[in-house]
């Protein structure tokens, strides 16, 4: 789901980067007002977890791969704003040091995976919790929706490139495939494989964190899941 440099126009990268500026500013204010300094390391745990699971690529039909993100899990454990910061840090490190996702495309990748995915997934999770659905099932369904929301946004951003940016002869200047190709390619992979992987990982980790004892290193990470006040 990471968009490399060269797939999006400079204008698209600039717009998506500009969109993420107020998002990250708001996330910083929210985290500063709700997290104690001693709790900040839990965000580092979240970043490390997301970094790790993004490294495991799952083969999908068509000869390519997809990966989980962990966005909804972080949103549940840290709050969606905390998840936004943790995931943005992960994406920044990946783009700068591992070439996974473009540097210029960081704004778009952050919007998709660090903002849209955690908020969509957390919204579904919160709704299901109000309906008295169990936390494990709620988290799994939320994770499935969250990663697919991010995949759809990625597909739209890519598919709009040949429509908006092309030469006089119609030749695409950046990503060459339109919405009719980008959306099915992204959504089939995530609806059938990556989304299920995300759901299973999230559900299993939530199940474990709900039972983490006070001596467990992940105890602080899981206080939201156990319904405790901060």
From TrEMBL:
InterPro entries: CbiM/NikMN. Keywords: Cell membrane, Membrane, Transmembrane, Transmembrane helix, Transport. It is a multi-pass membrane protein. The chain crosses the membrane at residues 7-28, 40-60, 72-97, 103-128, 140-165, 185-210. Its main location: membrane. Pfam families: CbiM. GO terms for cellular component: plasma membrane. It comes from the Bacteria. GO terms for biological process: transition metal ion transport. It is found in: Cell membrane. PANTHER family: METAL TRANSPORT PROTEIN HI_1621-RELATED (PTHR34229). This is Cobalamin (Vitamin B12) biosynthesis protein. It comes from Thermoanaerobacterium thermosaccharolyticum (Clostridium thermosaccharolyticum). The lineage of its organism: Bacteria, Bacillati, Bacillota, Clostridia, Thermoanaerobacterales.
